[in-house]
Amino acid sequence: MKRTFRKSPAYAFIDSQNLNLGIQKMGWKLDWRKFRQYLKDVHGVTNAYMFIGYMHENEALYEYMHELGYLVVLKPTVDITPNQDKDKNKHERHTVKGNVDVELALYALKEMPNYKKAIIVSGDGDFYALAEYLEQKSKLAKILTPNWQYSSLLKAFDNNIIRLDQMRSQLEYRDRKPRKKQ
Question: pLDDT per residue over 19-69, tens digit each?
């Protein structure tokens, strides 16, 4: 399924948390190496921007993604701890949040002169305005959603949507370590 691209390149803008959580929700793990190769071979992606919330303990992950060919854009995170006085469920755990939506949209607009087509990788309806703008400028190639549960706002772009859950056999991570004999 390899294609040859002669025109200007395509760029991918990846909401890593939306992609990762959406795939895991379907019960499997994405092979990031295979996904980067898929973006290159099938869509002609030369620059794959991965937007991710920064956590010090994930330094090795960011380096690994960079080695795979992703351009990692780190966003500061916010630690959200439930207020025990107000929350009824006192067993709620704290969450780390790194909203990347604005950065992703900003990069897509800032880099516009450098690409022929853009690929948005997210099922988040917050990217509706970006997709609409890119389509008006004839720059929207595809929207890759993690699964069938993408925002209804993106239904307007159904002709551009590729669901990655339908590509599980191609993109799934498989542990290659030999299993121990029992």
Answer: 999 999 988 999 999 999 999 999 999 999 999 988 888 899 999 999 999
The reported pTM is 0.83
**CATH number for the domain harbouring residue 65:** 3.40.50.1010
Q: Is residue 39 part of a domain?
A: yes
Q: In what order do the strands lie in the sheet with 161-163?
A: 70-75, 45-53, 10-15, 117-121, 140-145, 161-163
Query: By C-alpha distance, which of 122, 138, 147 is closest to 17?
Result: 122
Q: Is residue 177 part of a domain?
A: no
Using only C-alpha atoms, the chain has a radius of gyration, in whole angstroms, of 18
User: Residue 141 and residue 117: Cα distance in Å, rounded?
Assistant: 5
* Dist CA 45 CA 37 (whole Å): 9
How many residues appear in the chain?
Answer: 182
